[in-house]
């Protein structure tokens, strides 16, 4: 490979793939792949992530469009909720005859 | 291992939308669970011959697609091509199994795939041509999938219920193969000067082999004229979008259906059959 013909994978952007397993469930992140555009990303996702009957719906989104929290922000973001046990609904007495809880 | 019937879908559901296909999950027997008696009034030998030529097209096309493994321009495309190849291999397995029961010999799929010589293969020449570059492979796939989809659509009401079921199962697969190939042909035709050049060159190479696809065959009872019209119309529509032109050329020599193949088929089969022939008692 010379410099005149760079590998195309260096140019294809990365996409994140979300698959919904069946109706009623949420789309779940399953991985990422390279594609030239959204349509191709969907096709690739179908071939890479739904080969074993895993899905009924696929979302793809360009990875660089996702805004993510960083490890640096971990303490201000997540630590304050660690000692606030009263935010968990565990202080109620549940009557014995209430089903589905 | 005989665990043919313990492979439900991961979701535990097995819903058959078309109600016709509830088999094909067997590792050992492709037609596990199907009633494979040949109905009265159907000529078993003729049915077998029809199944073999459809299976040979699929097997050879699948082998060519498999040859892209480790060679495709992108990891994602490699898997896509392998997937399509495996779909076609599955179609070949079902059709060989059907042929073996229909002609009364009881031969299995391996007998057809591994222990016949090139002259006994009945595939069209288009599928045995070498892969060439990526443009050639996707242009060929577009033509092949479009044509095969038209054939199988017409076979869904063929008198043999097993062949009809195999056809209706295969249609969804072929529909995807066609759209995959069409996307790439449009991309290449409508892409850079280089990709356009290669896509057009691929078309020029494929065009002479179209004639053989539309040659009537005594055992393949479909309306060839309508298959030709539909296939040409759909391919032309894709080419219009891609800015490519289907050249009007003289037909190359056909004859694949009579066992008259190009020099490329023996080499392909030598590779495909080498392991099985080295140890005919081997099991896998």
Automatic annotation (TrEMBL), chain A:
Protein name: Phenylacetate-CoA oxygenase subunit PaaB
Pfam families: PaaB
Gene3D superfamilies on file: Phenylacetic acid degradation B
UniProt xrefs under NCBIfam families: PA_CoA_Oxy2
Biological source species: Embleya hyalina
Domain of life from the UniProt record: Bacteria
UniProtKB/TrEMBL annotation, chain B:
Domain of life: Bacteria
SUPFAM superfamilies: Ferritin-like (SSF47240)
Signal peptide boundaries: none
GO CC field: cytosol
An annotated GO BP: phenylacetate catabolic process
Pfam families: PaaA_PaaC
Coiled coil: none
InterPro entries: Aromatic_CoA_ox/epox, Ferritin-like, Ferritin-like_SF, PaaA_PaaC, PaaC
NCBIfam families associated with the record: PA_CoA_Oxy3
Protein name stated in the entry: Phenylacetate-CoA oxygenase subunit PaaI
Organism for this UniProt entry: Embleya hyalina
């Amino acid at each position: 490979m010379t410099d005149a013909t760079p590998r195309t994978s260096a140019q294809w952007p990365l996409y994140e793939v979300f698959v919904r397993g069946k109706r009623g469930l949420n789309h779940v992140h399953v991985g990422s792949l390279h594609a030239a555009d959204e349509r191709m990303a969907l096709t690739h996702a179908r071939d890479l992530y739904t080969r074993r009957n895993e899905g009924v719906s696929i979302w793809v989104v360009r990875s660089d469009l996702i805004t993510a929290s960083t490890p640096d922000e971990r303490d201000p973001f997540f630590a304050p909720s660690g000692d606030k046990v009263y935010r968990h609904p565990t202080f109620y007495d549940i009557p014995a005859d209430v089903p589905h809880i | 291992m005989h665990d043919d019937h313990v492979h439900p879908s991961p979701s535990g559901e097995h819903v058959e939308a078309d109600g016709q296909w509830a088999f094909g999950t067997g590792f050992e027997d492709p037609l596990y669970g199907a009633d494979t008696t040949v109905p009265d009034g159907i000529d078993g030998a003729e049915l077998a011959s029809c199944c073999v030529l459809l299976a040979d097209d699929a097997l050879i096309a699948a082998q060519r697609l498999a040859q892209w493994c480790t060679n495709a321009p992108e990891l994602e495309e490699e898997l896509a091509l392998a997937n399509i190849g495996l779909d076609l291999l599955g179609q070949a397995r079902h059709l060989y199994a059907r042929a073996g029961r229909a002609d009364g010999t009881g031969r299995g799929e391996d007998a057809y795939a591994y222990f016949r010589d090139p002259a006994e293969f009945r595939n069209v020449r288009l599928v045995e041509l070498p892969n060439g570059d990526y443009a050639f492979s996707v242009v060929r796939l577009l033509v092949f999938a479009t044509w095969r989809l038209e054939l199988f659509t017409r076979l869904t009401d063929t008198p043999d219920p097993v062949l009809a079921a195999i056809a209706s199962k295969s249609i969804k697969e072929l529909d995807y193969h066609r759209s995959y190939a069409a996307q790439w042909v449009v991309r290449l035709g409508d892409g850079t000067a280089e990709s356009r050049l290669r896509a057009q060159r691929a078309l020029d190479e494929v065009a002479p082999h179209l004639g053989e696809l539309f040659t009537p065959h005594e055992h393949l009872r479909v309306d060839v004229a309508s298959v030709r019209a539909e296939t040409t119309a759909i391919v032309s529509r894709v080419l219009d979008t891609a800015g490519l032109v289907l050249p009007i050329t003289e037909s190359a020599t056909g004859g694949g259906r009579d066992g008259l193949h190009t020099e490329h088929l023996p080499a392909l089969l030598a590779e495909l059959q080498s392991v099985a022939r080295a140890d005919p008692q081997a099991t896998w």
